[in-house]
């Protein structure tokens, strides 16, 4: 929008295990161009962008010959850093976001505080070891990496659910919706929503 800061970030990270280039625009349209080499992970990240109305471009070359761990965890690190950078000084943002999101038999609770203090509470179980080439134990690792890199307090809880695809997709969509709410600017908030004066 005219005369308003574009809240966006580009983060590149290269290690011996992964090479990642990520662009994130918070006030987007939900457009996504994602290639991680893991089909189900691509699907989850596209759902994240679509339901949060974030624009996301992501290209990853990872050591998938080992397993999916490094790729998924490192994308979490880079996404968290992009969120942090795009938020800037956090002036006028709502700070908090939450949702109870249904997906068929699954119900997911997600709550976020963009406090600057990283903390993850993750409460879920899965019945299978993987969905496609995505290890289900990596769901928690992904969100852990995002929270610590972004400096956010994140609670994700499975209230009900049996199908692991639905549970994981519900989590990514719920995270997107809660993050969209938390990053939204509120004209009533003139400075920072904290008695300390900073987040």
Report on this structure.
By secondary structure, this protein is α+β, with helices and mostly antiparallel strands. Helix content is 33%, strand content 30%. The protein is built from 4 helices and 10 strands; from the N terminus they run βββαβαβββββαβα. It has helices spanning 39-52, 69-87, 138-150, 164-183; strands at residues 8-14, 18-25, 32-35, 55-62, 96-103, 106-113, 119-123, 130-131, 134-135, 153-160. The strands form 3 sheets. Strands 1-2-4-3 form a 4-stranded mixed beta sheet, covered by helices on one side. A 4-stranded mixed beta sheet has the order 5-6-10-7, with helices on one face. α1 packs parallel to α4 (164-183) and α2 runs parallel beside α3. 40% of the residues are buried.
Radius of gyration: 16 Å
The largest sheet is:
4 strands, mixed
What is the topology, as strand order, of the major beta sheet?
A: 1-2-4-3
Mean of residue pLDDT values: 95
- Count of runs of 4 or more consecutive helical residues: 4
- Determine the structural class based on helices, strands and strand pairing: alpha+beta
Low-confidence sequence ranges: none
Elements, N to C (H/E): EEEHEHEEEEEHEH
Question: Total number of β-strand segments?
Answer: 10
The helix fraction, in percent, is 25-40%
Instruction: Choose one word for the global shape.
Output: globular
Query: Could you tell me the strand content as a percent range?
Result: 25-35%
Distance between the termini: 25 Å
């Amino acid at each position: 929008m005219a005369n308003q800061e574009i809240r966006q970030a580009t983060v590149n990270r290269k290690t011996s295990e992964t090479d990642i280039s990520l662009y994130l625009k918070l006030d987007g349209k939900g457009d996504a161009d994602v290639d991680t080499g893991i089909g189900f992970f691509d699907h989850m990240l596209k759902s994240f962008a679509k339901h949060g109305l974030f624009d996301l471009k992501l290209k990853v070359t990872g050591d998938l010959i080992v397993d999916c761990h490094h790729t998924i965890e490192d994308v979490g690190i880079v996404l968290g850093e992009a969120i942090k950078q795009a938020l800037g000084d956090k002036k006028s943002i709502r700070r908090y976001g939450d949702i109870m999101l249904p997906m068929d038999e699954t119900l997911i609770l997600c709550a976020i505080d963009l406090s600057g203090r990283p903390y993850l509470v993750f409460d879920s179980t899965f019945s299978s070891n993987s969905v496609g080439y995505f290890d289900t134990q990596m769901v928690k690792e992904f969100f852990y990496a995002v929270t610590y890199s972004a400096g956010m307090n994140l609670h994700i809880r499975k209230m009900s659910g049996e199908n692991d695809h639905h549970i994981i997709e519900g989590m990514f969509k719920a995270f997107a919706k809660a993050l969209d709410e938390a990053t939204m600017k509120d004209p009533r908030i003139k400075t920072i929503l904290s008695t300390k004066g900073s987040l």
